[in-house]
Amino acid sequence: MSFTSYVLTPTQFSDAPRNKLPFITIEYSDNTKETITDSHFIIKTFTERKVFRDLDAALTTQQRADSSAFLAWTEHLLYPVVVTTRFARETNFQVMRATIPIPVPAIVKWFIMWFLRRNIVAQMWKAGFGRYAEKEQDELIQEWVDGVCAKLELNGGKKWIMGAEEPTLVDITVWGFLANALEVGSGNEEFKAMILRKQILVEYVKRGANRWFQEYDLNRLLK
Predict the structure, then answer these.
(1) 193-201: long-range contacts (C-beta < 8 A, 24 or more apart)?
(2) CB-CB contact of 190 with 197 (8 Å)
(3) Residues 117, 93: contact at Cβ < 8 Å?
(4) Beta strand 23-27 with 33-37: parallel, antiparallel or unpaired?
(5) 199-212 vs 189-196: helix crossing angle, rounded to 10
(6) 40 neighbors 47 (Cβ within 8 angstroms)
(7) pLDDT tens-digit map of 167-192
(8) How far from the centroid of its chain's Cα atoms is residue 108's Cα?
(9) Residue 124, H or E segment
């Protein structure tokens, strides 16, 4: 299975299958289409069909289970808690409102961001994450930060989370969350401060950036 091109298309939750992002639509040469939702199943499908190599191929069964648990911790607990801190906390939200690029007049953007905030906060409340006190939210984020540090410290002095010589799938995900938090900056000030207090995470972010995104201004990202 191979592809000759791809198109990145702006969309929204209401247009997505199951109201869930991301999703992809594959168009085959016989004009049939296949839609796959959720990053987990997109990666699984592309790996099984040899579109790209299995980043976890060198891991043992036990390591794969450990990696899956860490991915679930990151995507299904850390992510919604961080989203809650960005949109429910007034100071953070003001930064998000100012920095999210929406190419519309300022007054229109104000209403869009108000509507977006209302919906996100309501969703996080229904899911339970918005019901935590701010102190509890920060504790959940700190536990994740400490967990990442513990994995890096216990991997035998190697560079990556699972102790492999090369990054695995969990590195792609964890590094992405760390880099995103630093890029958002004052929009999640608490999370950013937790990262910058851990030198081992700072070095990890640098390694990932130097490997995947040499164009990043690390001095700006890590200040």
Answers:
(1) 194/141, 194/142, 194/145, 195/145, 196/222, 198/145, 198/149, 200/149, 200/152, 200/153, 201/145, 201/148, 201/149, 201/152
(2) no
(3) yes
(4) antiparallel
(5) 100
(6) no
(7) 999 999 999 999 999 999 999 999 99
(8) 28
(9) helix 106-127
| AA identity, residue 30 | D
The amino acid present at 152, given as its one-letter code, is: L
First to last CA, the chain: 44
- The burial of 162, by beta-carbon neighbours within 10 Å (0-12 exposed, 13-18 middle, 19 or more buried), is given as buried
Do residues 87 and 117 lie in contact, with contact meaning Cβ atoms separated by under 8 Å?
Answer: yes
Return the C-alpha torsion angle 24, 26, 32, 34, nearest 10.
-40
What pLDDT tens digit does each residue of the chain (223 aa) get? 556 678 888 787 778 888 788 899 988 888 898 999 888 888 898 889 888 889 999 999 999 999 999 999 999 999 999 999 999 999 999 999 999 888 889 899 999 999 999 999 999 999 999 999 999 999 999 999 999 999 999 876 678 999 988 999 999 999 999 999 999 999 999 999 999 999 999 999 999 999 999 888 888 888 8
In angstroms and rounded to an integer, the radius of gyration of the C-alpha atoms of the chain is 19
Q: Give how far Cα 51 sits from Cα of 48, 128, 205, 217, Å.
A: 8, 37, 27, 31
Whole-structure pTM value: 0.87
What is the amino acid identity at position 111?
F
For residue 63, give the amino acid letter. Answer: Q
